[in-house]
Task: structure prediction
Amino acid sequence: MGSSDAVVEIENLERGLLSEPGAAGGTEGAGENDDPVLYTASFQEMEENFIKHQTAQWVLYSLLLILAWGIGLFMLLYLPVRRYVLRREIRSRKLYLTPNSIVYKVTRPVPFPCFGVLKKEKHVLLPSVADVVIEQGYLQSLFGVYSVRIENVGVRRPPSDDVQIQGVADPGGFRKAVLTRLANMRTEAFARQISAAEDVSSLRTPYQQGAWLSPTQSARHHLSSPSGELILLQKLEEVGSSVKRVQTLIEEQNSQASQPVD
Result:
């Protein structure tokens, strides 16, 4: 009975602390980002499971430390405040996807809430994202809690340095949204490269195109255009007139040679 009374007292203390003004301070600044939101992850559905998981983890550490140095007794006494801090933290979490980045915001009370809160805002650019990994440890599996880890591209660092977020209600949906956006960005970039190449090729003049051809190919190119046909006709007329003049000269010479010499 003593343990059940203690749990009731802890829950009553949590409700009292959460009902104070400023408990919803984590919702401030939600509209500071002007980028449109493509996907918003939720933490509300996993709040209770997350608190239970963290409480069980805290109790296990406390019991181990009681057997070792006795510090775990103070950790057990701190448990109501710990649960309050965790509940404030998960209620203030915001994780959403924009066209260019992944944004994670959280307002976390300090270990002693009377000394204020700590605000954290993380922006991960989508071009630097390699993958979104969903992880679940043994203790997390008992409470149905998942962790989301965002891996960076081309950075050889341990997994502990990546952005890790616990308590996402639908990690699979968040991962699918991020990977779909990455695929769309790569498709758009490829389409822009193709259109830019086509624009450059269309701006070339016929003369610029012919300058890169061999003499034979250049002549063929000019012959294929209307202006090239006119030039060819003029050349043929000039050649024909030259041939006629040569023929007349030959005939005159032959006639002079055939006349008798006096």
Notes: Residues 17-31, 207-213, 218-226 have pLDDT under 50 and may be disordered.
